[in-house]
Amino acid sequence: MVEESDVRRAAWDQVADAWARNRDFMWDTTRQVGEWLVDRVDPKPGDVIVDLAGGPGENGFLAARRLKTSGKVIVTDFAPGMVAVARRRADELGLGNVETRVLDATEMDLEGDSVDGIICRWGLMLMPDPGAALGECRRVLKDGGRLALSVWGDPERNPWVTVTGRTLDRLGFPPARDPFGPGGMFSLSDPGSLQSMVKAAGFTEVEVEEMEIDWRFDSFDHFWTYQTEVSSSMSAFVRELESSEVERFRLALEANVKPFHKDSGLLLAGMTLNVSAS
Ligand SMILES: C[S@@+](CC[C@H](N)C(=O)[O-])C[C@H]1O[C@@H](n2cnc3c(N)ncnc32)[C@H](O)[C@@H]1O
Q1: Which of 76, 92, 133, 189 is positioned for an S-S bond with 103, CB 3.0–4.6 A?
Q2: Residue 68: which CATH number?
Q3: Dist. CA 255 → ligand 1 center (Å)
Q4: How large is the average pLDDT for residues 267-275?
Q5: Which amino acids bring their CB within 6 angstroms of ligand 1?
Q6: What's the predicted TM-score (pTM) here?
């Protein structure tokens, strides 16, 4: 029997090359979130830092540069394709202190009390059992170890992605997944519940902060390509559509993003919840 986690992993593997292609755009747009996370974990020489659900690895690479002379960052992801993308990039950058590993965040193959810091950007809310992942974070972190993570906040403040889902709704396409259900993009978007969940995993000092992100796209074509090739669920959905349906979707989306035209491109808001915990 095919497990749901295998389906999710395969969907992420499918988009790994697209994440490599879009790496610079994504990092330029979202770097401030990565910097916030790495600042909170505050890597020091000698530390072992894990980038959990690290995808193409940029957040981990930032942490690796802060370690300077000793210590290491383990960039992990449950999708082997993503880990391969991160490995290639770490080698291109000559980052000798980056290890890469296939690892499921909800069942970490890591010793207890072995890690000084964990960063996890936009991974936790995608896990159907985020409490299990947080429990694993607590287990592998040393006493005093730091966790910094981010998840997407209020959908009303994230039109950069909700405009696409709403367009599909209006066209009568069933949602690929309930965005508020377990593993959905907005499943951890309530700051109070998020804070309680992190505390329930055994973290005592837990702070949640909002951060805004401006998503600037050069053109509608850029926006369309990004939306349909980077999101694992959207990309899988579009691959299954007839070409006439793809065209219908594209035209409707183009009309719905008209209010977001700014200068010669598009500007759509995003808001993420950043959590630091120890
Ligand atoms: C939205 S991407 C974020 C990637 C990266 N952290 C970043 O900020 O660019 C989510 C990543 O989570 C990974 N992922 C989802 N569920 C996971 C799990 N249970 N364990 C480990 N990785 C997981 C996916 O493979 C994907 O690479």
Answers
A1: 76
A2: 3.40.50.150
A3: 31
A4: 98
A5: 12, 53-56, 58-59, 77-79, 82, 104-106, 121-123, 126-127
A6: 0.97
